[in-house]
């Protein structure tokens, strides 16, 4: 996080779970991201956020999202960004 912040000192940073992850991996990602974001926030950087996708989207080739799922991912994340960052 320090490297990213050093290159982009004014940026809002959003840490995301993978929209392709299964339930078990999502649980692990949520824990790690919560720990990282809480730590960074506790050190004074309040411009770091976390977002957990609501479901797995991996119906395309090789476990990746198909086209319609990419739209769902974008829509879900856009709502979060608008609310959180006042876009």
Report on the architecture of this protein.
- There is one protein chain.
- The protein has helices at 2-7, 23-42, 67-85, and strands spanning 13-16, 48-51.
- The two termini are 23 Å apart.
- It has a single domain (2-85), classed as SGNH hydrolase (Rossmann fold), CATH 3.40.50.
- The protein has 87 residues and is mainly alpha-helical.
- A two-stranded parallel ribbon has the order 1-2.
- Helix content is 52%, strand content 9%.
- It is built from 3 helices and 2 strands.
The order of strands across the largest sheet is 1-2
Helix fraction by DSSP (H/I, runs of at least 4): 40-55%
Mean pLDDT: 97
Number of domains: 1
Content-based structural category: mainly alpha
**Unreliable runs, pLDDT <50, ≥5 residues?**
none
Order of helices and strands: HEHEH
* CATH C-level label: Alpha Beta
Based on CA atoms alone, the radius of gyration comes out at: 14 Å
GO molecular function: hydrolase activity, acting on ester bonds
């Amino acid at each position: 996080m320090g490297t990213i912040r050093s290159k982009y000192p004014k940026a809002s940073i959003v840490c995301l779970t993978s929209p392709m992850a299964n339930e078990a991996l999502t649980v692990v990602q949520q824990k790690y991201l919560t720990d990282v974001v809480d730590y960074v926030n506790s050190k004074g950087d309040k411009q770091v956020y976390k977002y957990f996708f609501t479901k797995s989207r991996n119906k395309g080739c090789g476990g990746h999202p198909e086209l319609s799922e990419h739209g769902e991912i974008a829509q879900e994340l856009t709502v979060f960004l608008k609310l959180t960052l006042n876009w």
